[in-house]
Design a protein that fits this description.
Strand order of the largest sheet: 1-2-3-4-5-6-7-10
Distance between the termini: 6 Å
Radius of gyration: 18 Å
Number of strands: 10
Shape: globular
Order of helices and strands: EHEHEHEHHEHEHHEEEHEH
Strand content: 15-25%
Number of helices: 10
Length: 268
Amino acid sequence: MRTGISTASLFMRKYNEEALPFLEKIGVKDAEVFLTSFSEYEEDFARLLEKKKGSVSVNSVHILNAQIEPQVFSACPRIQKDVYAYLEKIAKSAQILGAPYYTFHGTARYKKAAREGQDDFKRVGNALQKAFAFCKEKGVTLCLENVEWSTYNRVGVFSALKEYIPNLKGVLDIKQARIAGEGYEAYLQEMGNDIAYVHISDLDENGKIRLPGQGVFDFDTLIKRLKDVGFDGKLFIEVYKDDYQNEDELKTSCDFINERLYKYGCLH
């Protein structure tokens, strides 16, 4: 295992073309690139980032999901045509950056029935299988993240969708599990050795999101549980711009997690 940082942690502080050189400067080896606007899905922008990233290894791309991903599940042929044109751009960006993974949220649960778990898994599963296969053809693995307001909003969804996509991989997000009110442990057990990578954050005594090492979250137990399911991937720090003061704190936080990984013989 190894710790990296998502450029989402620098959103509205630094643009991606500034964030990647900054991560290299502070000695971070791994990143997830959070593409945030339609212009950032273009090939020219990906090539700019590839030049700017230096020695940083890009594990995955992540987009501002509500812009595009809910339309993956539309029955309208014209919408499907447009959304797959964007999926192709995203996959191309991942290829250029050398990222094997794409962090995917999926549907937007705006309607009450959808938030309460009234899912048509056949419809969702078939649409997701199509998107998964499309990305795989482009050399990128689509990974479904647990997100309180989106497709994988509760335990049980991942298992149901794996019936349609047996090779489906997941992204465990500690923060989103907390928001969903189920705790990360159940998500971790459901995804098991299908976890591709993890999004981590801390929280203080008042429940405010903090950088790892600045709160009360038990990272030692998380690491042990990840080991127990055979996980050996990357842990990416993903917080928001107002969750810390100084950008150099990101390096301290990254070092903190790597020290925990070293303690348990997981760091490589």
